[in-house]
Amino acid sequence: MIPKQFPRLLAVRDLVKIYGLTAKSQLSQNFILDKNITDKIVKYAKISQNDTLVVEVGPGPGLLTRSILETGISNIVVIEKDGRFLPTLMQLAEASEHTLKIIKGDMLKIDHEKIMKAAHIDEDRIQVSNLHLIGNLPFNIASSFLVQWIKMLSDRSGIFKFSNITMTLMFQKEVGDRIIADTTSPQRGRMSVLVQSFCEVKKIYEVPSSVFVPRPKVDASVIQLTALPNPFLKGNNNNRQKVNSYK
Questions:
Q1: Domain range list for the chain
Q2: Confidence bin at 241 (pLDDT 50/70/90)
Q3: Dist CA 134 CA 80 (whole Å)
Q4: Strand pairing category for 53-57 and 220-227
Q5: Is 174 annotated as a binding residue?
Q6: 37 among the known binding-site residues?
Q7: Which of 179, 191, 181 is nearest to 245 (CA)?
Q8: pLDDT digits (tens, 9 = 90+) for 30-88
Q9: What is the CATH architecture of 36-244?
């Protein structure tokens, strides 16, 4: 695939300096400012023009977003809680001729209808389309995101009504290892069982702590989850209670 070319933009590292964008520890923010890393994440995630919609959670200053846009994807919605990042994201939206749509909000609380409306995808189309959810998740609440999304996947609600769903998510390495742990691993636990009941899981990339700004105390793992066509747990009331119990 030939990378899509955009008007020349300032490097994200420079934009961070210009706008004074420091990572907030209370939001568990850590930036990746090396585009070689974000390009690799997107490459290994296998985001392609066949994806009807890419949803990125917590884009921050937007370096991973740039790598996604360069695949030629025609529809990407980003959800960002921190309003400080809106100017840099708006520059990307303009440069992409609004292939990129921006929603300011908390992904844990947002009405998913806003995402569908921003993406211009109706109910009929959603059920025969591909969704790719991607994000460098804050380490302190990454598990909360995942449990909520697995619950929505079990219900086939919100954006999880898409017929084909892939999630490429970054976790603290220890959490990622628990998510992918198989039945022979001592790290296998409740989270492993929950996630693997609904998704095929695999580690696609390890991210050393040294690439983050500021540098965290732990490394990270990028985990890819592909929704199973026939999950081991069905979306009935009893199993909704089971999913809720993992919170």
A1: 36-244
A2: very low
A3: 13
A4: unpaired
A5: no
A6: no
A7: 191
A8: 788 899 999 999 999 999 888 899 999 999 999 999 999 999 999 999 999 999 999 99
A9: 3-Layer(aba) Sandwich (3.40)
User: Does 80 belong to an annotated binding site?
Assistant: yes
> What per-residue confidence (pLDDT) applies to 7?
59
Q: Are 178 and 227 in contact (CB under 8 A)?
A: no
32 has binding-site annotation: yes
- Is 30 marked as binding a ligand? yes
Q: Is 56 annotated as a binding residue?
A: no
Tens of pLDDT, residues 149-163? 999 999 999 999 999
